[in-house]
């Protein structure tokens, strides 16, 4: 099991959600990278869904206590390991490609509800999207 997590939305640097949940102190910065997914703007936060032709940018962190970190993230993301079909986001490991070209696995939360008319973020970069929004 990997000890890394990939954040592509409001859990990235510059937002307050990690600190409020008490997991920020358990995370060490690894770097920026991409996953194969499509990114959508849901209004107050983004949603990524797996897409082999898409690219989503994000931040990777190493968790000092992965079980506690995932427990906190599951609560934030509305994920239930025993009932994934009704979870808002589902957690899975995916390959991350880092800016230096290396790869490694990390946990990511993929959106698990209808996207409705959510706008696709073509750049795959939520921070860039917010700058022009």
What does this entry look like structurally?
By secondary structure, the protein is an alpha+beta fold. It has one domain (4-132): Gamma-glutamyl cyclotransferase-like (Hypothetical upf0131 protein ytfp), CATH 3.10.490. Helix content is 18%, strand content 39%. The chain has helices at 17-21, 66-77, 126-132, and strands at residues 4-7, 27-35, 37-41, 46-50, 56-63, 89-98, 103-111, 119-120. It has a five-stranded antiparallel sheet with strand order 1-5-2-6-7. Strands 4-3-8 form a three-stranded antiparallel sheet, with no helix packed on it. Strand 3 (37-41) and strand 4 form a beta hairpin. The protein is globular. 30% of the residues are buried.
Q: What layout of secondary structure does this protein have?
A:
Elements: E1 4-7, H1 17-21, E2 27-35, E3 37-41, E4 46-50, E5 56-63, H2 66-77, E6 89-98, E7 103-111, E8 119-120, H3 126-132
Antiparallel strand pairs: 1-5, 2-5, 2-6, 3-4, 3-8, 6-7
* Rg for CA atoms: 14 Å
Question: What structural class do you assign from the helix and strand content?
Answer: alpha+beta
* Major sheet strand order: 1-5-2-6-7
The CATH homologous superfamily is termed: Gamma-glutamyl cyclotransferase-like
What is the typical, i.e. mean, pLDDT? 94
User: What quaternary form is this?
Assistant: single chain
User: Count of DSSP E strands?
Assistant: 8
Report the total helices: 3
C-alpha geometry: globular
Mind telling me the CATH class? Answer: Alpha Beta
Q: Spans with pLDDT under 50 lasting ≥5 residues?
A: none
**Number of discrete domains:** 1
**CATH architecture annotation name:** Roll
Strand content: 35-45%
Largest sheet: 5 strands, antiparallel
Helix share of residues?
A: 10-25%
In CATH terms, what is the fold-level topology? Hypothetical upf0131 protein ytfp
Task: Give, in order, the helices and strands.
Answer: EHEEEEHEEEH
End-to-end distance: 37 Å
């Amino acid at each position: 099991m990997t000890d890394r997590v990939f954040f592509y939305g409001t859990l990235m640097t510059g937002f307050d959600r990690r600190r409020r949940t008490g997991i920020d102190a358990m995370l060490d910065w690894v770097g920026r990278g991409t996953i194969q997914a499509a990114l959508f703007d849901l209004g107050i936060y983004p949603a990524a869904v797996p897409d082999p032709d898409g690219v989503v940018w994000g931040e990777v962190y190493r968790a000092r206590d992965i079980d506690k970190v995932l427990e906190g993230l599951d609560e934030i993301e509305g994920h239930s390991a025993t009932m994934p079909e009704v979870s808002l986001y589902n957690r899975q490991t995916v390959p991350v490609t880092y800016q230096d070209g290396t790869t490694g696995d990390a946990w990511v939360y993929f959106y698990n509800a209808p996207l409705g008319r959510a706008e696709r973020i073509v750049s795959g970069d939520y921070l860039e999207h917010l700058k022009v929004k």
